[in-house]
Fold these 4 entries.
Entry 1:
Amino acid sequence: AQSVAQPEDQVNVAEGNPLTVKCTYSVSGNPYLFWYVQYPNRGLQFLLKYITGDNLVKGSYGFEAEFNKSQTSFHLKKPSALVSDSALYFCAVRGLFMNNNAGNMLTFGGGTRLMVKP
Amino acid sequence: DSGVTQTPKHLITATGQRVTLRCSPRSGDLSVYWYQQSLDQGLQFLIQYYNGEERAKGNILERFSAQQFPDLHSELNLSSLELGDSALYFCASSVESGGALGDTGELFFGEGSRLTVL
């Protein structure tokens, strides 16, 4: 079974400071890792994904994430936070299934609320 | 705009009733996923359909059922509703190759249907 942990329910950061939202995962085989953002009363929006290759992945809105296989982590980062980045962030994992009947759904972490203060 | 359309956006009903939530995937996407988002359970995968057939099942109650029609839209039926069924129900779609290998696509989410059971 695959699982994702986001150890922080909330992260507070001042505008202009760097931010990190943590994520660790557990999956059989090579993971496909994703970050999504959810603004109030909206659906989830895709930010970035790691499939293979360079461990540092760049995504939308200046976000990036670093894949660390030995630590089974995929932390989301941004060099300079904006107030408009305040939202709920979800990390997700998708395992590489060898069985076509296994499905390809994403398993999500519990979410981390990012609060960026002016 | 993700291209995934969900109706209705809001629904208020009473315990014991039955409702149907509808989802139209992005043009060309063959797979549809249903997720439930509640405050205490986070994002829970319910069920996946691929090209009209059930592909994977998650934490879906027996009172709930889903189907995907030939035009690829999907419906999630919730019956004998209980107070605890109050949640946001998201539909997502992806291209899906039909096989697990090489399928790295992210999911595209609709805006969700907010169900309130009184």
Entry 2:
Amino acid sequence: AQSVTQLDSQVPVFEEAPVELRCNYSSSVSVYLFWYVQYPNQGLQLLLKYLSGSTLVKGINGFEAEFNKSQTSFHLRKPSVHISDTAEYFCAVKSWDGQNFVFGPGTRLSVLP
Amino acid sequence: ETGVTQTPRHLVMGMTNKKSLKCEQHLGHNAMYWYKQSAKKPLELMFVYSLEERVENNSVPSRFSPECPNSSHLFLHLHTLQPEDSALYLCASSQDTGRANIQYFGAGTRLSVL
């Protein structure tokens, strides 16, 4: 079984500053990794995913994430955030056979003017 | 617009009521899911349907009863709920339940049980 840890429950950051949202996972098998974003009063929307290949993955809205197998991490980054990035961000892990899909507890990103 | 529509968006019900949540996907997917999102807790997978057959049921109380009449529609029938069942209920769909498939989520139904 997999588990996902998002160490920061809340991250406040000023507009145009860089941000990193941390995600660590544990798994005994190979995994696929995902970041989802949930804007207020909406469902989850896929930001980016890592399935294989390059460990640096680019997603929508200027976000990117880097898969680090040795550290079992998949941190999400954006070099310059906007007010509109204020949302909840969820890291998720799926086992290679697709049988287990686990979400982290979420990180609430608040972008301040 | 993700192609997954949930109705109603908000629902308030008493503990003795019976209500149903509806989910419809316009993506041609074969798998559909119900999740429960409670405050300060990770997203909880409740049910998984693949080609209208239930393939996963994660120890959900019997007061929640899913129904999948076809691959485009998924219902969650609710009866005699408890206040702790108040949460955001999210529906998702994917091409199938295979390993690399992406799940697309609806906007959710915000349920309040009084």
Entry 3:
Amino acid sequence: AQSVAQPEDQVNVAEGNPLTVKCTYSVSGNPYLFWYVQYPNRGLQFLLKYITGDNLVKGSYGFEAEFNKSQTSFHLKKPSALVSDSALYFCAVRDDSSASKIIFGSGTRLSIRP
Amino acid sequence: DAGITQSPRHKVTETGTPVTLRCHQTENHRYMYWYRQDPGHGLRLIHYSYGVKDTDKGEVSDGYSVSRSKTEDFLLTLESATSSQTSVYFCATAGLAGGFSYNEQFFGPGTRLTVL
């Protein structure tokens, strides 16, 4: 069965430094992967997705994600963190049993210190 | 939030009472979803709809029912609320374009439900 794992509950980064939020996945077919962000007291917002093509996917707010098939990973990255990037980040994968559903990871809280 | 509203935004109720949450969208999206968010569990799918009057269960559907009588509205009902259903509930929608599996979901602002 497909699944997605976010191994870090929390990531702390200094403002201006690069950030990485990790995600690994397990699927039986082709992976369709997503990243979402949730700011306090808000719903999730879509950041980016990988369907096929280039392994480096660019998304909103300067974020990008690197798809690595051999390592079954889809890490979220940003070259220079902002305090305003502090939020909860979710990785997600399409559900193979029903293409209209996606499965979310447990989330990683990103904290950017000034 | 892509034209998705949820009502009420906050509700406190007592164990055993019925509760209905409403999701309304103006995007004409085919797919609609109800999730619950709990600490340590991320988002878990309760029920979803793939068209008017077409619904299916998610991974945590026990104790919940849904209805979709028109494209824009998706209702979630807790027939007899329990304390374990205290949570934040999110509605989401997704459109149909090409392969629907490619489409990202858009989320509403959430409803915070407390069952005493």
Entry 4:
Amino acid sequence: QKEVEQDPGPLSVPEGAIVSLNCTYSNSAFQYFMWYRQYSRKGPELLMYTYSSGNKEDGRFTAQVDKSSKYISLFIRDSQPSDSATYLCAIDGDSSYKLIFGSGTRLLVRP
Amino acid sequence: EADIYQTPRYLVIGTGKKITLECSQTMGHDKMYWYQQDPGMELHLIHYSYGVNSTEKGDLSSESTVSRIRTEHFPLTLESARPSHTSQYLCASGPRTGRMETQYFGPGTRLLVL
């Protein structure tokens, strides 16, 4: 079983829709959870991070962690065509160097 | 935006050639990483470094080698390129301090070996 599972998509939504992107993880000891956004032919960029359980909001983006279910989510409100990208969840594996990345979900927001 | 640079951005080269992919960061980060990513596929860690004179192999076996002589510089070398090395190579860096592992990525080098 992979340590982090993420649906690869693609996910296609109309402009203005609410988007929900999700990952599940296997190790209940994980504490730090991140979302990266990767535009085509670019490197990933850190979008948001959360510590332990709860929600964190930044503009149209909300990151949510449910440690009881080992489930992390990224919600995008009022989605825009410029949000079209691949979104990768990442978890700090509590070792000195390693981030555990999901495989990424491709999102397409149609005008 | 993170100050991490990769050159070249694109490289087309013949089989058997030696190549070096450059990665530099101006943030003074101790940790640096190389990932390999095929189009539409997940990231695979191939090398990392905790600091000067420190290099380790990552999760994915790779025929490439790395060096870390200076904090800001982490080049990756392929002694003899093969078509199977065709991929995107992403460099990242992150600070040693802090409770959370954070990595900042460069723009990537897209390599095509003919």
